[in-house]
Amino acid sequence: MKKQKRQRDVKQGAEGAAPAKATESRMWLWAAGIGGVVIALLAYGPSLRGAFVLDDRSLPFMTPGYEVQPLSVWLTGTRQLLMFTYWLNYQMSELDPGSYHFTSVMLHVAGSIVFALVAARFLAWSGVAAKTRDTLAVFAGALFLLHPVQTESVAYVASRSEVLSVLFFLSAFALWLYADDGPVTLLRSVMIVVLFAAAVLTKEHTVILVALVPLTDFLWSRGGLRRNRILYGLFVIGTVFGAFVIWNVLRGATSAGFNLPGMPPAMYFYTQCRVIWIYVRLFLLPFGLNADADLPVSRSVMEHGAVVGLIALVACVAAAWIYRRRFPLASYGVFVFLLLLAPTSSFMPIDDVFAERRMYLPFLGLVLIALEMLRRVDTGLMRWTASALIAVCCILTYQRSQIWASPLALWTDTAAKSPKKVRPRFQLAYAYYEQGDCQQAAQNYETASSLAPPTYDLLADWALALDCAGRTAEAIPIAKRASAVENSAHARSTLGMYYAKSGDFQAALLELAAAEKIDPRYEMTYIYRGTIAEKGGDRATAASEYRKALAINPRNETAQSALARATR
């Protein structure tokens, strides 16, 4: 009887507010969409001029020679739909980052429109009047669009996986939410599953849709297994497909998975009991945003207050269940937030325990909680409050976008907020090197090397910065340390180059001979040896060495110009 009454109340609330189709036909969605494009371009405008940073530079299309590969090669491997969007950008602008950033912003705008539609549906189910519903739905979409915590997902090209996958995810979810009250048809079910598959093929965490639909079905009494039997049947197949995709990704992953060194699942879970509350705080008070936060790990439930976070989470879940009829939007929002965070913030370890972009999908749950509070406020006050919040978010997002507009600004900000973490300092040093400030670059590499045992890349780049700053003699011992960490042709030939610059040609030739023995196909070895011969006046030997380099890589411009010079 209670269940029937709840179904009748929800249905009457939705009908009493206004038919859902009337909401869909209103012009507010078009106006909000056009306004969203303009405001988004203003708020994210500075980041449109931003360079590629961090993992952007490790994307496959950054590999020299990748541009000549056919589309089939771009789509080989994982996240094929994501790579397709990168391929489109490359056709338009090659490696000019502007088009990549613009595409991400437009995808984000599209996602905010679908987000508003999803919010409007839940507002209708909870019995909010049509006029108020439209206002709150626009607010929800605008908050998703302009909240400063979204900046990383939008401004970071590598995080397009988040933006695109969530667009597919929300589209599939909205298609189900807006189904008629009868059983979900086969055609609609197939469309939902196709969008779901597109989401999973873009980023694997969106597989959680197979749990969100039944949760929504249960908490909102939408008909359950009988009404959605076709969709649920397809979801069973989709779950197997999603599991295969995730397994395939984790099998080759080095930064995530249950076999991550030094991070057992229990330790990761204890840490996430604290991290989840940081996400909530960033939603409420978005200050201290950090592209690479340095958070201590909780090795036990008692360490760093993990137990307090766990108790608070259990209390929130209990309260959401107890008050699910009185506060349906907030109750559902709590469950949605924790469910959508589960793929990245529960038991499966990830090397980075915290990342702002992980809030992009679970943002829906927090917005529904906010809508529950706003719907209970006087209409005039609600509109003023919503407008003020969006204005503040727009300003903060613009300011954060200015940070993302420059690698030097981004890593200066990040290193200041994470002073004991190696990666921000390493990236800051590289940003200085790109700007031509080799002295500052060398100084920051030295600082980074003192924070943790230096890797080969750090040592090699440090030596390069010292050489750039005219301190070649100081670069030699750093390069020796690098070759001790990684005895590669690159390490030995670079060390040989430094010896040659310092005038010790005998030591240089010994290092280059060692490099050739390690990898005869490393072209720079022959270029460096040719340079030494050329400086000694032996142009014939120099030309021979340059030809060896060109035989390995005919497109090496350094070898081409050197050969032309030696044979002139």
What does this structure look like?
- Among the domains are: 253-376, no CATH class; 412-566, Tetratricopeptide repeat domain (Serine Threonine Protein Phosphatase 5, Tetratricopeptide repeat).
- The chain contains 28 helices and no strands.
- The radius of gyration is 28 Å and the shape is elongated.
- The chain has helices spanning 2-17, 20-25, 28-43, 71-74, 80-93, 97-125, 130-146, 151-155, 160-177, 186-202, 209-219, 224-227, 229-251, 265-284, 306-322, 328-341, 363-374, 379-404, 407-417, 422-434, 438-451, 456-468, 472-485, 489-501, 505-518, 523-535, 539-552, 557-566.
- Residues 1-25 have low confidence and may be disordered.
- It is mainly alpha-helical and 568 residues long.
Low-pLDDT segments: 1-25
DSSP strand content: under 5%
Mean pLDDT: 88
CATH superfamily of the domain at 412-566: Tetratricopeptide repeat domain
Put simply, the count of helices is 28
Number of strands: 0
Helix content: over 70%
> What name does the CATH topology of the domain at 412-566 carry?
Serine Threonine Protein Phosphatase 5, Tetratricopeptide repeat
Task: Tell me the series of helices and strands, N- to C-terminal.
Answer: HHHHHHHHHHHHHHHHHHHHHHHHHHHH
* Terminal CA distance: 96 Å
CATH class of the domain at 412-566: Mainly Alpha
Oligomer status: single chain
Going by CATH, the architecture of the domain at 412-566 would be Alpha Horseshoe
Radius of gyration: 28 Å
What form results from the Cα inertia axes? elongated
